Amino acid sequence: QVQVVESGGGLVQAGGSLRLSCAASGRTFSTYVMGWFRRAPGKEREFIAAVSWSGGKTNYADSVKGRFTISRDNAKNTVYLQMNSLKAEDTAVYYCVLNPFTSAYWGQGTQVTVSS
What we know:
The protein contains no helices and 11 strands. It is mostly beta strands.
């Protein structure tokens, strides 16, 4: 059974930082692409970032490029999203996804609220 569990969300002031973590189990974590998506109130789900199985390749949405960093620790079966220079428009539920572009497994999400 695959489990994807996010943590680290919360309330932060604009300009601040948060780090989200995501632990995955039930698959050989180190062989899968991992990704982060978000859904803001009243908006469609949005791709944020993805990292290759080795961690050597990453890609980002333009909206977060230069502010967010995705990374992974295969020894801990964990992927991270470091979010800096947060803006009010980053307020959303953030979802971690194992194998996001094919047979995806989604976490339940963690709320990030940025106060302006």
